[in-house]
Amino acid sequence: MSGVGPATDAGAGPRGAPTAVVLIISGPNLDRLGTRQPGIYGVALLADHVEAAVRTGRRLGLTVEHLQSNHEGDLIEAIHRATGRCAAVVVNAGALSHCSWSLHDALAAFEGVVVELHLSNPAAREPWRHTSVLAAVADGCIAGFGGLGYELAMEAVARLLTRSGKVGP
Ligand code: DQA
Asked: Which of 88, 91, 126, 135 is a Cys-bridge partner for 113, taking CB atoms 3.0 to 4.6 Å apart?
Protein backbone atom coordinates (compact mmCIF):
# COMPACT_ATOMS: atom_id res chain seq x y z
CA MET A 1 0.00 0.00 0.00
CA SER A 2 1.38 3.41 -0.81
CA GLY A 3 0.52 7.04 -1.03
CA VAL A 4 -1.89 7.51 1.87
CA GLY A 5 -2.56 11.15 2.69
CA PRO A 6 -2.51 14.35 0.73
CA ALA A 7 -0.60 14.17 -2.54
CA THR A 8 -0.43 17.94 -2.54
CA ASP A 9 0.26 20.68 -0.04
CA ALA A 10 -2.99 22.38 -1.02
CA GLY A 11 -5.52 22.83 1.74
CA ALA A 12 -6.97 26.18 0.96
CA GLY A 13 -8.35 27.64 -2.22
CA PRO A 14 -7.40 30.92 -3.87
CA ARG A 15 -9.29 33.04 -1.30
CA GLY A 16 -8.29 30.92 1.67
CA ALA A 17 -11.48 28.84 1.52
CA PRO A 18 -10.95 25.14 2.32
CA THR A 19 -10.73 23.00 -0.81
CA ALA A 20 -12.76 19.89 -1.46
CA VAL A 21 -10.75 16.69 -1.06
CA VAL A 22 -10.68 14.13 -3.87
CA LEU A 23 -9.45 10.62 -3.07
CA ILE A 24 -7.83 8.80 -5.98
CA ILE A 25 -7.82 5.04 -5.48
CA SER A 26 -5.51 2.82 -7.51
CA GLY A 27 -6.03 -0.91 -7.39
CA PRO A 28 -3.95 -4.03 -8.05
CA ASN A 29 -0.97 -3.90 -10.41
CA LEU A 30 -1.19 -0.17 -11.01
CA ASP A 31 1.99 0.17 -8.96
CA ARG A 32 3.67 -1.58 -11.92
CA LEU A 33 2.82 1.13 -14.43
CA GLY A 34 5.85 2.15 -16.45
CA THR A 35 6.97 -1.44 -17.00
CA ARG A 36 3.63 -3.27 -17.04
CA GLN A 37 2.46 -3.93 -20.62
CA PRO A 38 3.59 -0.47 -21.85
CA GLY A 39 1.90 -1.05 -25.20
CA ILE A 40 -1.44 -0.99 -23.38
CA TYR A 41 -0.82 1.20 -20.34
CA GLY A 42 1.98 3.49 -21.55
CA VAL A 43 5.36 4.19 -19.99
CA ALA A 44 4.36 6.83 -17.43
CA LEU A 45 4.50 5.88 -13.76
CA LEU A 46 1.46 5.97 -11.49
CA ALA A 47 3.19 8.85 -9.67
CA ASP A 48 3.21 10.81 -12.94
CA HIS A 49 -0.55 10.34 -13.32
CA VAL A 50 -1.19 11.35 -9.72
CA GLU A 51 0.99 14.42 -10.22
CA ALA A 52 -1.10 15.38 -13.27
CA ALA A 53 -4.24 15.02 -11.15
CA VAL A 54 -2.70 17.13 -8.38
CA ARG A 55 -1.79 19.87 -10.88
CA THR A 56 -5.27 19.83 -12.39
CA GLY A 57 -6.84 19.76 -8.94
CA ARG A 58 -4.81 22.77 -7.83
CA ARG A 59 -6.12 24.74 -10.80
CA LEU A 60 -9.69 23.70 -9.96
CA GLY A 61 -9.44 24.23 -6.21
CA LEU A 62 -9.41 20.53 -5.32
CA THR A 63 -7.05 18.78 -2.94
CA VAL A 64 -5.89 15.32 -4.02
CA GLU A 65 -5.16 12.33 -1.82
CA HIS A 66 -3.99 9.06 -3.32
CA LEU A 67 -3.89 5.45 -2.22
CA GLN A 68 -2.58 2.51 -4.21
CA SER A 69 -2.96 -1.02 -2.94
CA ASN A 70 -2.86 -4.52 -4.34
CA HIS A 71 -5.29 -5.60 -1.59
CA GLU A 72 -9.03 -5.22 -1.98
CA GLY A 73 -9.61 -4.63 1.75
CA ASP A 74 -7.25 -1.64 1.80
CA LEU A 75 -9.24 -0.02 -1.01
CA ILE A 76 -12.54 -0.69 0.76
CA GLU A 77 -11.27 0.78 4.03
CA ALA A 78 -9.98 3.86 2.21
CA ILE A 79 -13.48 4.41 0.83
CA HIS A 80 -14.93 3.99 4.34
CA ARG A 81 -12.50 6.62 5.66
CA ALA A 82 -13.40 8.96 2.79
CA THR A 83 -17.04 9.04 3.84
CA GLY A 84 -17.93 12.43 5.29
CA ARG A 85 -14.41 13.71 4.61
CA CYS A 86 -13.90 13.57 0.85
CA ALA A 87 -16.13 15.20 -1.73
CA ALA A 88 -15.26 12.70 -4.43
CA VAL A 89 -13.56 9.40 -5.17
CA VAL A 90 -11.79 8.74 -8.47
CA VAL A 91 -11.30 4.99 -8.73
CA ASN A 92 -9.15 2.93 -11.05
CA ALA A 93 -9.62 -0.42 -9.38
CA GLY A 94 -7.70 -2.37 -12.04
CA ALA A 95 -9.12 -5.86 -12.56
CA LEU A 96 -11.22 -5.50 -9.39
CA SER A 97 -13.42 -3.20 -11.48
CA HIS A 98 -14.71 -6.29 -13.24
CA CYS A 99 -15.43 -8.51 -10.25
CA SER A 100 -15.41 -6.80 -6.84
CA TRP A 101 -18.91 -6.55 -5.42
CA SER A 102 -17.30 -5.53 -2.13
CA LEU A 103 -15.87 -2.42 -3.77
CA HIS A 104 -19.24 -1.85 -5.41
CA ASP A 105 -20.93 -1.90 -1.99
CA ALA A 106 -18.33 0.41 -0.42
CA LEU A 107 -18.79 2.95 -3.22
CA ALA A 108 -22.58 2.61 -3.04
CA ALA A 109 -22.41 3.79 0.58
CA PHE A 110 -20.15 6.75 -0.28
CA GLU A 111 -22.33 9.83 -0.62
CA GLY A 112 -19.99 11.95 -2.75
CA VAL A 113 -19.12 12.01 -6.45
CA VAL A 114 -17.65 8.78 -7.87
CA VAL A 115 -15.70 8.72 -11.14
CA GLU A 116 -14.54 5.36 -12.52
CA LEU A 117 -11.27 5.64 -14.42
CA HIS A 118 -9.28 3.37 -16.73
CA LEU A 119 -6.13 4.09 -18.71
CA SER A 120 -7.09 1.62 -21.41
CA ASN A 121 -10.52 1.12 -22.96
CA PRO A 122 -11.74 -2.13 -21.37
CA ALA A 123 -14.68 -2.27 -23.82
CA ALA A 124 -12.21 -2.76 -26.66
CA ARG A 125 -10.33 -5.57 -24.91
CA GLU A 126 -11.09 -9.13 -23.75
CA PRO A 127 -14.78 -9.88 -23.09
CA TRP A 128 -14.26 -10.32 -19.34
CA ARG A 129 -13.20 -6.67 -19.15
CA HIS A 130 -16.39 -5.45 -20.82
CA THR A 131 -18.38 -5.52 -17.59
CA SER A 132 -17.65 -3.15 -14.73
CA VAL A 133 -19.38 -3.99 -11.47
CA LEU A 134 -18.52 -0.45 -10.31
CA ALA A 135 -20.29 1.30 -13.20
CA ALA A 136 -23.69 1.22 -11.51
CA VAL A 137 -22.41 3.13 -8.48
CA ALA A 138 -20.27 5.65 -10.39
CA ASP A 139 -21.47 8.99 -11.71
CA GLY A 140 -19.56 8.23 -14.89
CA CYS A 141 -16.54 6.52 -16.38
CA ILE A 142 -13.47 7.86 -18.19
CA ALA A 143 -11.64 5.18 -20.15
CA GLY A 144 -9.22 4.84 -23.02
CA PHE A 145 -7.45 8.19 -22.83
CA GLY A 146 -4.30 7.01 -21.06
CA GLY A 147 -2.81 9.49 -18.61
CA LEU A 148 -5.05 12.27 -19.88
CA GLY A 149 -7.85 10.43 -18.07
CA TYR A 150 -6.52 11.60 -14.70
CA GLU A 151 -6.88 15.23 -15.75
CA LEU A 152 -10.29 14.58 -17.31
CA ALA A 153 -11.43 12.84 -14.12
CA MET A 154 -10.51 15.91 -12.05
CA GLU A 155 -12.36 18.15 -14.51
CA ALA A 156 -15.40 15.87 -14.24
CA VAL A 157 -15.27 15.96 -10.44
CA ALA A 158 -15.06 19.76 -10.41
CA ARG A 159 -17.98 20.12 -12.81
CA LEU A 160 -20.14 17.67 -10.87
CA LEU A 161 -19.35 19.31 -7.52
CA THR A 162 -20.08 22.76 -8.92
CA ARG A 163 -23.33 21.53 -10.42
CA SER A 164 -24.37 20.06 -7.08
CA GLY A 165 -23.46 23.33 -5.35
CA LYS A 166 -20.81 21.67 -3.16
CA VAL A 167 -17.87 23.78 -4.42
CA GLY A 168 -17.23 26.63 -6.81
CA PRO A 169 -18.99 29.85 -7.66
C1 DQA B 1 -7.34 -0.92 -16.10
C2 DQA B 1 -8.14 -1.89 -16.98
C3 DQA B 1 -8.38 -3.19 -16.24
O4 DQA B 1 -9.10 -4.09 -17.08
C5 DQA B 1 -7.06 -3.83 -15.87
O6 DQA B 1 -7.28 -5.02 -15.15
C7 DQA B 1 -6.17 -2.92 -15.15
C8 DQA B 1 -6.05 -1.54 -15.61
C9 DQA B 1 -6.98 0.36 -16.88
O10 DQA B 1 -6.61 1.33 -16.24
O11 DQA B 1 -7.00 0.37 -18.11
O12 DQA B 1 -5.45 -3.31 -14.23
O13 DQA B 1 -8.14 -0.54 -15.00
From this structure: 88
Distance 98 CA to ligand 1 centre (A): 9
Residue range 14-164, CATH number = 3.40.50.9100
pTM, entire model: 0.92
Does 120 sit in the ligand 1 pocket, CB within 6 Å?
Answer: yes
Rounded CA separation 120/137 (Å):
20
Residue of 132, 157, 128 whose CA lies nearest to 24: 157
Span 123-163, pLDDT tens digits: 999 999 999 999 999 999 999 999 999 999 999 999 999 99
